[in-house]
TrEMBL record, chain A:
Species in which this protein is naturally found: Chrysolophus pictus
One cellular component (GO) term of this entry: cell cortex
Renumbered residue ranges of the record's region Disordered: 224-327
Residue ranges annotated for the PDZ domain, each copy included: 123-216
Protein name: Par-6 family cell polarity regulator alpha
TrEMBL record, chain B:
Family per record: Belongs to the WD repeat L(2)GL family.
Per-repeat ranges for WD: 69-110, 423-441
Annotated protein name in UniProt: LLGL scribble cell polarity complex component 2
Species name: Chrysolophus pictus (Golden pheasant)
GO biological process: cell division; cortical actin cytoskeleton organization; establishment of spindle orientation; exocytosis; Golgi to plasma membrane transport; regulation of establishment or maintenance of cell polarity; regulation of Notch signaling pathway
Recorded superkingdom: Eukaryota
Amino acid sequence: MKRSSAGTFQDFYSLLQSVHQIPRVDVLLGYTDVHGDLLPINNDDNYHKALSSANPLLRVIIQKKAESDAGVFASNSLQRKKKGLLRPAHYRAKPHLLIGMPQDFRQISSIIDVDILPETHRRVRLHKHGSDKPMGFYIRDGVSVRVAPQGVEKVPGIFISRLVKGGLAESTGLLAVSDEILEVNGIDVAGKSLDQVTDMMVANSHNLIITVKPANQRNNVIRSSKASGSSGVSTDSTPSQQTPSPASQYLSNYSTAESDEEGDLVIESDGAPHYGPVGCPNGGPADGPLPPSLSPHSSQGSLQSLGSHDGSPGRGSVREDGTLLTL
Amino acid sequence: MRRFLRPGHDPVRERLKRELFQFNKTVEHGFPHQPSALGYSPFLHLMAIGTRSGAIKLYGAPGVEFVGLHEENNTVMQIHFIPDQCQLVTLLDDNSLHLWSLKQHSGASELWEDHRFTLKGPPGSPPSAAQITAVLPHSSREVLYLGTESGNIFVVELPSFGVLEDRTITSEAVLRWIPEDYCNRRSCELVEALQEHPKNPDQILIGYSRGLIVLWDRQNNKVTHHFLGSQQLENLSWQRDGSKFISCHYDGSYTQWPVSNDNRQSLPLENLVPYEPMWDIHNGLPYIIFQGGMPRASYGDRHSISVIHGSQQIAFDFTSRVIDFFIIFSSEPTAEFDDPSAMVVLAEEELIVIDLKSAGWPAVHPPYLASLHCSAITCSHHVSNIPLKLWERIISAGSKQNVHFSNMPWPIDGGTNIAPDPPQRDLLLTGHEDGTVRFWDASGVCLHLLYKLSTVRVFLTDADPNDNMNTMGEDEWPPLRKVGTFDPYSDDPRLGIQKIYLCKYSGYLAVAGTAGQVLVMELNDEGAEHVVDHVEADLLQDQEGYRWKGHEKLKTRDGPVQFEAGFQPFVLVQCQPPAVVTSLALHSEWKLVAFGTSHGFGLFDHQQKRLVFVKCTLHPSDQLALEGPLSRVKSLKKSLRQSFRRIRRSRVSSRKRRGGANGKFDQGILQEMELAPVQRKIEARSAEDSFTGFVRTLYFADTFLRDSSRHCPSLWAGTNGGTVYAFCLRVPPAERRMDEPVRAEQAKEIQLMHRAPVVSILVLDGRNIPLPEPLEVAHDLSKSPDMQGSHQLLVVSEEQFKVFTLPKVSSKLKLKLTALEGCRVRKVMVANFGSCKTDDYNENDLAVLTNLGDIQIISLPFLKLQIRYPCIRKEDVSGIASCVFTKYGQGFYLISPSEFERFSLSTKWLVEPRCVVDVPEVSSNNHTHSRSVMENASRKSSQCLFSVTFPFPGVQEEVQVTMEKMVSKNYCTQYSMMTCKFFKYCSNMERCYFLLKKRESKKRN
């Protein structure tokens, strides 16, 4: 196989099937990258990435789809790196839990902007649209201790006061009681009242991004070149990510990107009202990293790099983007 | 790249913004909340009112107003004008004195605080030693005498408030002149009253609370006379010639004392009690005015001031506690007699002026200080630029209601209003809890009642409206007469007005209330008797199995009802279930009225008197909306009033007990709060939330709803759950209007994804101008809307502003206010802003009030934030809820139950007081001097007052005889304490004599 005439993933897949004479068996493809991580090959992009990393040979691992379990990709994925640290007991207790492919999941949360935030902070995105679960958390006023030039000073802050069992916030494992809330969708909450922050969160509830300072600082992501290289997030970053200013990115998001994210339901004529499901139940296939050229939003910065990629193509485009539904 | 340009950096636009927008709080309308002190300057003809929150407000001729605020926000205890000056001194309850003065600045007078001062006692003395109890501004204008709790009287210089220690009148110095058998350590405790001798400024009358009264000579520092009273003293008042004074006492008695040169220790002339059931009327002409005096057992809950003049006697029965009162004398300095013309009474909730010159002593209609809250305000509606014709008709209807008022010109007429005439006629309509709508002239600085409309007549209430409380159960004696309009006790809360819509061109008025009632009215210049058509609108329609647990609907009157001239209802629509009407719209051209409640909305054709359609907006799971508020209506007028009275009476006695219980309770609450801190749930809104069906806004528009080629009348409704319904209407042409029915069909339903409550709906025409009001074009007052270009729909929710194209409702633009700032839209209105530089430029913007009390101006149609001003405190929920914007960038909100603050966002439309107070020339020392004495006598605010005026010589003896008779009945202990005022006529003869004497004394010096 010539490297120059690699073709598409689909071509490669059918080639493999014909070579191995397994034309009707669904298989999963994987390869090991330079760091020794086992990574999937399931679309054009990671296929090309795999090819480019072949040195000199590409070791392809073929596995029947039904056999794939947690032991395959998840153990080395970004999810594993973060969640595994947070909830290792869970994973050990159920090692044979069947976990489907990323396209079978809907994403409910993610940690974003690891590369631009201080290590003590965590920016969490909650995808309400992909979930039927209630958001499920409460916030309260509290006192935050800051280190100022004059010494330690106490300032009012907003904290998570309670997580509802089984709610979205709890199920992510990324938020905990007593975490201090620093930003809501890129806007600093300093100086804002509890009610103001509540309103901001509710107004953004379809796509809530909160930056917290976790009360438990032991589970922070340790940033190193290796970790960031394997995260699959920052390696794809465009130059614009190097000097990010969250606020300005968000301002531009509000004017452009988000306007198509949230569509209102319009019912023409006097037919029966139709209250369709709010979001597409399927998270969409594009969990893997996409090159910037394919993403409509990637130029707006890293905030979008993971989140929007999953969101925009994944949802029912008729309802979400077209705005109009004529009955 | 454009998105990286920061908005708002266009220098041309920035300059234009400065020419268009400017935020000012301009004037406070209505009656000051919790007044605590009253002062009057007969010299300036200005009245001053102090409040418990530390404000002082000065009022003169209509339009002449000044406001000052003490930084301390403490209760104003006393107000004293400095004689013959544009200055006044206030005493606060933190014992601080403040000197204010009116200064002219760029052509208009302004009120400034010059100095403040807190009296300090000698080192080591208790703080009470310097607690000021009495203030006397001396007629020399140089010093203030300050009586204190310790009994010492300090003298301070004006305006510096420097203490002149060598002139302090200590109690020891006074006691040296008192006979030893009377002397005791406590006899000089607490100075109760200080009065300057009316003729001799060097003599000061000092009254101590134990009853001792001395006349102090400030030149020689000695007591010239002493008067050994035995009763606890309340106040002192000189007779005008200085030959007598009156002391009044806690036990309800008062005593006259003669002041003669030969006798240094006078005995009382007489000791009297003023009120008794068998009043023996003498044929005299004095004015006797006193507060209280009613036997406590039967009339202890009344707030009365009695005026007796010859055979006339009236006990004015006020609606709230009397703070203080003063008398205005119309006599010129050259006039032969004092001639009281008006009595001004400051009660806790209203200002009453009684005309003492006209027969029957009618009240004077006040041009300002109106009691907005005579029944609690439930809603307000502002209409700008009223056509002259409608204005005159409303005034004429109002004048028929005001026949019982005196036509005396307003007696407090100091200062000159130099503000330009208001540019247009504006009406502010307030809806009240008792089912009335009041029409206020809001064009200028003085908010003035034009007309009052009552909707009560349409309904059958427990108490018949003709049944007059005053005639029932009242004896002929005492001759009580109810004055004032303050009446906070609603007979039936269901009558409350919730929404008002007035069409200024047609004179149609729609009014909706608490029990789902919607009345459509027409202006009629004559009184008429007619039947009000009655239609019921079942908003639940086919929704079965619900039970309304709220109040019942109002019962209507059968048969014709008599209506007075003014707005007369001709149609009544009652929503079923009878929930509060939450939105209302009237289209006077199409003759349609739309109304909405928490259950749905309906459209009514008031021409054919037919219900066009109803739409239920209720979500099936919303139980709360169905059950309604838990209100149990007990509407027995009398029992309600009585129970309120009982509560008021028992409040004082129970305060102590409750205080103890509260202490424990508070601790419990505190502990609870620590256990469960305040927390807020973060949850996306869902269709299942409560009150999603609540109809928040209704809007009529002639626009392109179905296709872009044909426009048609439409009705838009927005709900609490973020749904917008659009109905296409077919209104028959005028010639067949009565024959063909109005048809409506639902054309669109928009569910906003963020599900926030829809606050307002608006359609912009092809030139991005909001569609004109109904009939506005027909009256040539607006350009006809552009029907060629494409229309746009603006939906304002609590969280977002969103522009959609029409007819294909697709999102075009939006401003996500809440996501960005964490504030929500509470009120929004299109306002027209004109440039202050060029006459021909004006633009339409949105004026927005948020839940944080900020006011923002947002441009149309691009939804760019122009400017933001903090206006109302965010904790002031009722202030934010009461805010109304005008069409020209002004607004009103309630700063207390009784006061509207007026503000302006426009550089062009600004209504604010601008006035000048000139210092009148001092015409006669004697005249002004005696006035200042009168002013001081009226100081005692909380206790009863007694005032006697003798306009003619020789009458005094008669009064004395009368009073002596009363004393023999010995009612002393039953009567409330009183303060006396005593004025004697002052003839020219006497004045000449006085001037001569004064000249002599000067020569001697």
